[in-house]
Amino acid sequence: QVQLVESGGGLVQAGGSLRLSCAASGRTFSLYAMGWFRQAPGKEREFVAAINRSGSLTYYADSVKGRFTISRDNAKNTLYLQMNSLKPEDTADYYCAARIWVGVIRAQYEYDYWGQGTQVTVSS
Question: Is residue 63 classed as helix, strand or coil in its secondary structure?
């Protein structure tokens, strides 16, 4: 199995940027398809972005397309989410998730492993 630890969250003004990281330990990171999800207060957790195990394929929610970039460094066992042009509606707890898979996974129920989350707050 794999253990996931997110970091990089914080408080930022609208229009600002943050980069989230998800450090993986355990089994070979390059076997895993990875995803980012978020959960705002009082709302259900939702898909943000996903990447295949080689990093060659990515997929984004419409709400973040053009503003967020998912990437990975398999040599460093780390997943990233670069978030630019942040909006107050991006405020949420952000989670990374993993599953051994070849393609891109968008459905959260398909992921096997989850991190504990990192909080992002965007002030207006």
Answer: coil
Percent of the chain with pLDDT over 90: 98
| Segment 79-82 long-range contacts (CB within 8 Å, at least 24 positions apart) | 79/21, 79/22, 79/24, 79/34, 79/36, 79/51, 80/19, 80/20, 80/21, 80/22, 81/19, 81/20, 81/22, 81/36, 81/48, 81/49, 82/17, 82/19
Structure tokens at 98: 């993993």
Q: Is the pLDDT of residue 27 over 80?
A: no
Q: Which two tokens stand for residue 118?
A: 């990192």
Asked if pLDDT for residue 5 goes beyond 90, the answer is yes
8 Å CB contact between 78 and 24: yes
Whether the CB-CB separation of 7 and 116 falls below 8 Å is answered with no
Instruction: Give the three-class secondary structure for 91.
Output: coil
